[in-house]
Design a protein that fits this description.
Elements lengths: L4 H13 L11 H10 L3 H14 L4 H13 L3 H14 L4 H13 L3 H14 L4 H13 L3 H13 L3 H10 L1
């Protein structure tokens, strides 16, 4: 079953919002960007993270959160570019890899989404969100059996939203 765009937006928003760190250095471009992002000023957040990147082009976190801000504005292609750069600088960041997978799903690159989410699962097999999101991508690609198995595993790992997907689709 294909999932609606509105529902995927809710899922993505919940996933992305769970990745915010606590405050950075007060007054820094990163801190300003995070504040703007939390308050829904995505353009302001993008500008602040861009300023951070200009002053520190090796700041993986700034690329990551600029990607989040772009995704929140619906610019999934732009977010993928930023997530990819962030991963080049910090290849062990599962949250960024997961967000990139979600963004890939949003632009229809389901194979890319599934590959990213499989890598998250490989690196962190207890990540219920990764199983949930891979299940969504599997469902979008037409593989409901694998999607149901992923959602079942996600429930086992504590992802409550996955139980709704199981009840509705499996």
């Amino acid at each position: 079953m294909k999932l609606s765009s509105a529902f995927l937006t809710i899922v993505i928003s919940l996933t992305i919002l769970l990745t915010f760190p606590f405050a950075a250095n007060a007054g820094s471009n990163l801190d300003i960007g995070l504040d703007k992002l939390r308050n829904g000023d995505y353009t302001g957040a993008i500008n602040a993270f861009t300023d951070e990147i200009k002053s520190n082009p090796y700041d993986a976190t700034a690329y990551d959160y600029r990607g989040v801000s772009k995704a929140k504005r619906g610019d999934f292609s732009g977010s993928i570019i930023d997530y990819t750069r962030s991963l080049e600088l910090d290849p062990q960041n599962n949250s960024t890899l997961s967000n990139r997978g979600i963004a890939k799903a949003r632009i229809g690159d389901l194979d890319g989404a599934i590959n990213d989410l499989e890598m998250v699962i490989l690196l962190d097999p207890e990540n219920g969100n990764a199983f949930f999101n891979r299940g969504v991508a599997m469902d979008m690609s037409g593989d409901l059996n694998t999607a149901c198995a992923d959602w079942d595993k996600a429930v086992e790992l504590g992802n409550d939203m996955a139980s709704k997907f199981l009840d509705k689709n499996c």
